[in-house]
Structures are given as C-alpha cells and as structure tokens.
Amino acid sequence: MMEKTDVLVIGGSAAGVVAAATGKFFHPDKDVLMVRKEKTAMIPCGIPYIFSTVGSTEKNIFPPAMAEKAGVRIKYDEVLSINKDEKTAVTADGTNIRYEKLIIATGSLPKKPRSLPGVDLEGVFTIPKNKEYLDSIQQYLKDKKKVIVVGGGFIGVEVSDELNKAGLEVTLVEILPNILNLAFDKELAVRAEELLKERGIKVVTGTGVKEMIGQGQKVTGVQLTNGTSLDTDAVILSVGYAPNTSLAKEAGLKLNDCGFIVVDEYMRTPTPDIMAVGDCAEKRDYITRKTTGVMLASTACAEGRIAGMNLYKLSALKTFSGTIAIYSTALDNHGFGTAGLTEAQAIAEGFDVVSGTFEAPDRHPGCLPGMHNQLVKLIVAKDSGVVIGGEVIGGSSTGELTNILGFIIQNKMNLNAVLTAQIGTQPMLTASPAVYPLTKAAENAMKKIMNL
Questions:
Q1: Cβ-Cβ contacts under 8 Å for 307 (sequence gap 6 or more)
Q2: For 32-153, where are the alpha helices, taking DSSP H only?
C-alpha cells in the first residue's frame, strides 16, 4: 500500500507534535502526516508524579489534540525503515509512505547498564516514556515496602520524593558527591539533599552500585561499591537516557560519536530534506559550543518549532544556537532551578568567572502568607560581565525566574543590562524592588569584578 505526504514526522511526543503543528501552521498548503507508535504518549516531565501526586498514567497523557487542531494527519503505527534515497518510509502495517520532507523525532530510551550483575532480575525497573511499562511498575510496587532509586539527577530525585510520598521506604544512591551534582554548585545541591533527608528519604552519595542481589528471579538487595549491602523490594534505575536512533542509523543517516543524529542550527541533517529534533538530535552547549547529552522536553519543543518553520524556506533568525540546559524541579513547596553553566563547570572549561549570590524573602514584607526565601546565584564571565549561568532556590516562582535566567543567557546580557533592567514588583507576588535577589546577585558579582 502506497501513501503520499508532503511532510512526514516520525514520533509523536513533545518534539514530534510541536514540529508537525508548527510545520502545518507555517506551511498550511502542505499535507503533514505524523506517525506515532503509541496512542497514549506520556507527558515526559510529569512521569515521576504518577507515583503519588498525579496518581496514575491516565492523568499524565500527552494529547495529540495540538497537532490535530492544526490540521495534521495522525497514523498510529511504527515506522520500520527509511529509504533516504527514494524518500520513502515503511510502517509495520505495510504502508509505504512517500514524502518530500522528513522530520525524525524518535526520542530517547532509558539506559540499563548491561554489565551490571542482576540488572535483569524481576523488580529492577527503568523509567521510560511507555504507559504500559509504567503501569507495570505501579502494579509491582503496590504491596512493596522498600525501594532503592539509583541515580540522583532530576528524575531520580523526583521519583524518590514521589515514592516517599506514596509511603514507601526510599533510599537514593548517587555515585557523585552530591545529588543534582551536574546541575547545581555544591552549596545549592546540599540544600536539596538536606531537604530530601528531612522528608524521610535516605540519601547515599559518593558510591555506586556493584551488583543487584536476588533470591530466585527477584531482586532482594543491592551491593554498593563501598561494600555496603542494602535490602530492597524493588530497584528503579535512573542513570540517564540514550538517543533512540537505531532507525536513523539503519537508514544511513550520520550520527555523532555519542549516537545522536547530526544536525545543523536549522535542525537539518546532512541528508537533504531530512531533519531531526528532540532527544534523538545532536545538541551543542550554548556557552561552550561542545556537543552535549542534555535532553529536555522544553529544548525538544524549541527544536520542533525551528524545524517546522524552516521546512521549505530557511530563516537566519530562526535557528537553534545551542542548549542552555534550563532545568527546574520542586520538592514539596521548595523550587530548584538552573540555567547555563554552574560555577564549577565554567571553571573546568577555562572561563575566568566571578559569582554573585543573594537571598531574600520573595514577598514584601516577609511576613505575608506564602513567603519563601529566594536565593539567586549568577555565574559571570569576568572579562565581559556577560552572564553565562544562574541557579535559583525558592518557592513557586522558581520555575519562571529560572526561565528569566535562560532569557538573560540566550541574549548575552551583561551585568550592566541586568542592573538597569526594569522590573515590576508586587507584595504578594515578588521580592521587594529594593532587595530583588536577581538584581542584588548581579550587584554582588559586579562588586567582585570592580574589586570593591
């Protein structure tokens, strides 16, 4: 069976949906077909919350409505192969789809270290974006008491917190010196660690997992590299994700050394008329220009929009110039956010930097209900005063303030620009204009540069 389309999008999660909808919006005369394997795709960032706050996968569905309302056709099937020379793709039901333009948005898959003894024991799980698999985890944990989470990145921390809220005894194991070690400088990371401990989670850092211990076919414990053995009813591995690029590789598309599909700033692959977006596509750090393995739904959506806009006509103003790595998370009513480079990363890369930190109530006066202390740290290039990184700890406003840091970094704003920026403040919503943490952190950094 043969089918034709102008634009074929393979993959229907965040990147694929946004790419398809944007492509149809900017090119309304073109037929856009999106092929997605799952009828019920997960909202990626909401997955940890199915274990308690949201309660089930049914309440964390990424609906295809955005693409459908834009006029995108959707085929629920799996693409098995791509012929880049003939510009065709074959699906599992035998359909041969001929396209003009192709966007690959096949996402990523959780890493499961094959060399780790016992990794295939019953009760050892990863965190994929697959509804049925996630349902099986919840079902398995229903009558369990103890769980070990391996990996103290954002997903590992969020899953640990949610399982703790669900009433399980949780131990979080992280091989690095601190949880969230790659996203925050130590003085901020330890605050998240202390908060988790206060909430009843056991945190073990500075050691890895040597092997999974089993009885019969079920996992019953974990042996750490420091010699400690921990009993458990289940293990959840949160040790990162790998790009899902087997389809692209088999089609002969160029991959980089880390297995990502090579793309330029317009999201084009070296193969004419084929683009790639989202977790499967190559990333470069916005500051260092080095390739990076950062995978974020927000980044994927930005790439999807850029690909959709540049399908048929390139715009020099519509490019993806590198990922700023903007992350945020919440533990209870505490927010943690980061954008760009940490101070430790900047120094390791060879940047001459100063940092500025300031902490103040996010209400004024501080006795107003809902007040939360807000800490802002800026990492600044000493020679130019340009902000290359920032970190935030605060309350519910942390996410949006982290996004502002992203805007500052992307627009290469220097300390003068931040210090003279006009802000709007309101007692119940923001810190005082006199001690606004973002401005005062910039002032603190400026003093260091001026040696005051």
A1: 19, 22, 23, 103, 266, 267, 275, 277
A2: 65-69, 131-141
